[in-house]
């Protein structure tokens, strides 16, 4: 276990606090649109996880380490309780946080991830990132071209190269800690044991075109989080907040106000 780090974050709005946690290879920049929209009603804390964005690089990417970081940030900001939004890796972290400290979280939104271990689906992404010759490229377009033999989807390549930075002294470099993400990947693919301590409202949002939450996962989700409901966005895949922002925000706002009572069944399609 490593020492907690001071996470980078952006804060906006006022009212009841909402924490937003991005996914693997992401940053708070991916969630600025959602944060801006919710800030008309809530105090939104949009954060970079360790080894991502502008947060410190540190050894360790266990869910326990990341949970320590988030709880430390809450203490630093004087947040006794908050609502949670977590996507993919951040969604697993949200589940760990709610299970570990249920008294500190009033509602939880988990975006396109289930409480289970996953296969090594990102090996092609790691190969694409390593294929980029940081010493030779002159633009993000060149980086995207070098990645194409490993990752065919241009949207995924654009998402990844948004983390490619250039400085007069550092040259081209990744904003995330690629070596630590790769080292920790087998661990982050797993799911820590949950104890069923969070019985509050929990909304799972999945994209209909995504394979991350399957019908066979629904009993597991209900067992681990008895106060849960599931909403499917027909026009979305693994990034519902990007692929269907209107549907995503509609679901989140309804859930934050009325909990799972605003969804007619476990799987409610908007």
List the helices and strands and how they pair.
Layout: E1 9-12, E2 17-21, H1 32-38, E3 43-47, H2 63-77, E4 82-87, H3 89-100, E5 105-111, H4 123-131, H5 140-147, H6 154-161, E6 164-167, E7 171-174, H7 178-189, E8 202-207, H8 218-224, E9 228-233, H9 240-243, H10 245-258, E10 267-269
Parallel strand pairs: 2-3, 2-4, 4-5, 5-8, 8-9, 9-10
Antiparallel strand pairs: 1-3, 6-7
Domain AB hydrolase-1: 17-244
Protein name: AB hydrolase-1 domain-containing protein
GO molecular function, one term: hydrolase activity
Task: Please give a structural write-up.
It contains ten helices and ten strands. The protein has 270 residues and is α/β, with parallel strands linked by helices. The chain has two domains: 9-116 and 193-269, Rossmann fold (3-Layer(aba) Sandwich), CATH 3.40.50; 123-185, no CATH class. Strand 8, helix 8 and strand 9 (228-233) form a beta-alpha-beta unit.
Key structural traits:
270 residues; alpha/beta; 2 domains; two-stranded antiparallel sheet; AB hydrolase-1 domain-containing protein; hydrolase; AB_hydrolase_1; hydrolase activity
């Amino acid at each position: 276990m490593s020492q907690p780090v001071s996470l980078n974050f952006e804060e906006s709005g006022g009212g009841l606090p909402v924490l937003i946690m991005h996914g693997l290879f992401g940053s708070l920049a991916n969630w600025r649109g959602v944060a801006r929209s919710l800030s008309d009603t809530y105090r939104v804390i949009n954060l970079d996880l360790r080894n991502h964005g502008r947060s410190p690089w540190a050894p360790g990417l266990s869910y326990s380490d990341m949970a320590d970081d988030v709880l430390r940030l809450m203490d630093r900001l004087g947040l006794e309780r908050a609502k949670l939004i977590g996507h993919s890796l951040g969604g697993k972290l949200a589940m760990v946080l709610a299970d570990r400290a249920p008294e500190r979280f009033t509602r939880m939104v988990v975006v396109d991830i289930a409480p289970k271990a996953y296969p090594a689906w990102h090996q092609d992404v790691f190969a694409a990132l390593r294929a980029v010759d940081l010493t030779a490229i002159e633009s993000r377009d060149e980086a995207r071209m070098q990645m194409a033999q490993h990752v065919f989807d241009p949207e995924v390549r654009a998402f990844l190269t948004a983390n490619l930075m250039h400085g007069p002294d550092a040259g081209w470099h990744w904003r995330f800690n690629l070596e630590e993400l790769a080292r920790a990947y087998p661990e982050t693919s797993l799911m820590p044991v949950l104890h069923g301590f969070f019985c509050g409202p929990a909304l799972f949002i999945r994209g209909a075109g995504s394979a991350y939450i399957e019908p066979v996962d629904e009993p597991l989700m209900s067992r681990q989080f008895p106060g849960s409901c599931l909403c499917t966005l027909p026009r979305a895949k693994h990034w519902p907040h990007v692929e269907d922002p209107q549907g995503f925000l509609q679901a989140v706002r309804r859930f934050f106000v009325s909990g799972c009572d605003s969804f007619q069944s476990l799987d409610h399609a908007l």
